[in-house]
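hiii so um. not sure if this is the right channel but i have a protein structure encoded as tokens and i wanna go backwards to a sequence. like what aa goes where. can anyone help
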């Protein structure tokens, strides 16, 4: 079986599968992972209308609630999911993380950070057996670790023993150096701990590789490369849309991405670029960045920059490299390493979706701006599937299951958890 294949959700509900609800579902990266891990996803919810369109296109049989999560109650969600109190196995959510990201301002009082509290409020009302929350690693160091400690206490107050770990998407088959912080909480009466899956790609374990550090070629060997991820997609120019595949898929990853896809490729649009940006990227060879541009081609604000600054701006990808983390601004060459390895343009929406791990049958709906946001904000489905599969295996164990702690730079506060558990 191809390890990268992600199947379409079945229209028929299978009996006996563990149940799940996905909040802050966005385009549906987590939902797709859950379905392929064998969960019966009973409901998804997000505030954005474009996310609802994408959801209804790809998950027609899963109810979607478009609402502000602060206005939702546990009763609302159980009704939509057709579940009774106590029947939900898993609640998953990725509260918007812009306020926690190292790219953002990391403001503790950012109102978006309140959505973490709303998610945990609903966990307390729904009382599922397990709660998974994902976010950016920057959350752990916000306010010198105070936010992490607070999250541990709120989990405990909601009735859950929680652990956290940073997981790298490339170690689970997604062709991308994207770290996510996962919190896995088990209801106290379950007597379970952990649920972080062992990596399937490369030689390193959980916690051996950390964000913002150089990773050796030996440690990245076995990760899916950019060529393996997008090398079969049709050639297009900046500002154009491609509709027809011109190459057969090569390798397991491309074969999995093309499985069950129609004859035409969807969302293969590359952003139109200014004349100045076209001139800049035209002179760049694979692996080169702004430091290799003639000074007269640099933006005024970068002409005085130190060479150690902005190290990945205007960087052209390399076919044998592993993609950097996809963000919502991947249309802009100055945002990072988002210039195609050969073609004079930034990567297309479909190419970014491939790098995230979305198969080609998965169609994103909305305006171009909304598509960039959906793809850039998504959780890689292959990473979501790996975590969900491990948790499902633990849910299938009726007895206590205390997994050994994984290597992590951060630890949750156990004292309040133990006190409340007692």
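sure thing!! here u go:
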């Amino acid at each position: 079986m191809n390890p990268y294949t992600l199947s379409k959700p079945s229209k028929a509900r299978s009996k006996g599968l563990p149940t799940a609800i996905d909040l802050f579902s966005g385009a549906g990266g987590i939902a797709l992972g859950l379905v392929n891990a064998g969960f019966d996803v009973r409901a998804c919810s997000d505030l954005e209308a474009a996310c609802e369109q994408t959801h209804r296109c790809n998950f027609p049989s899963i109810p979607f609630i478009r609402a502000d999560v602060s206005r939702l109650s546990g009763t609302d969600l159980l009704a939509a999911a057709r579940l009774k109190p106590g029947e939900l196995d898993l609640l998953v959510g990725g509260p918007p993380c812009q306020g926690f990201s190292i790219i953002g301002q990391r403001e503790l009082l950012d109102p978006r950070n309140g959505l973490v509290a709303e998610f945990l409020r609903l966990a307390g009302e729904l009382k599922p057996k397990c709660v998974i929350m994902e976010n950016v690693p920057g959350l752990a160091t916000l306010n010198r670790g105070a936010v992490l400690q607070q999250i541990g206490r709120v989990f405990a107050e909601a009735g859950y023993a929680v652990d956290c770990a940073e997981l790298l998407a490339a170690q689970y088959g997604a062709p991308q150096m994207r770290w996510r912080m996962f919190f896995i909480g088990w209801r106290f009466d379950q007597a379970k701990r952990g649920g972080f899956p062992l990596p399937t790609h490369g030689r390193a374990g959980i916690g051996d590789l950390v964000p913002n550090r150089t990773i050796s070629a030996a440690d990245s060997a076995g990760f899916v490369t950019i060529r393996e991820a997008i090398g079969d997609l049709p050639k297009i120019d900046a500002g154009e849309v491609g509709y027809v595949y011109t190459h057969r898929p090569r390798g397991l990853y491309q074969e999995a991405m093309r499985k069950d896809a129609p004859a035409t490729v969807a969302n293969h649009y590359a952003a139109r670029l200014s004349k100045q940006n076209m001139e800049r990227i035209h002179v760049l060879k694979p692996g080169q960045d702004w430091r290799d541009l003639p000074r007269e081609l640099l933006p005024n604000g970068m002409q005085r920059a130190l060479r150690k600054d902005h190290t990945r701006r205007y960087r052209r990808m390399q076919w044998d490299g592993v993609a950097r983390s996809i963000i919502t601004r991947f249309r802009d060459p100055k945002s990072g390493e988002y210039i195609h390895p050969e073609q004079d343009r930034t990567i297309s929406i479909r190419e970014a979706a491939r790098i995230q791990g979305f198969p080609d049958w998965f169609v994103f709906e909305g305006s171009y701006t909304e598509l960039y946001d959906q793809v850039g904000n998504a959780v890689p489905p292959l990473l979501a599937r790996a975590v969900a599969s491990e948790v499902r295996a633990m849910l299938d164990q009726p007895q206590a299951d205390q997994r050994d702690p994984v290597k992590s730079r951060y630890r949750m506060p156990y004292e309040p958890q133990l006190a409340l558990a007692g």
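oh and The longest strand covers residues 160-168.
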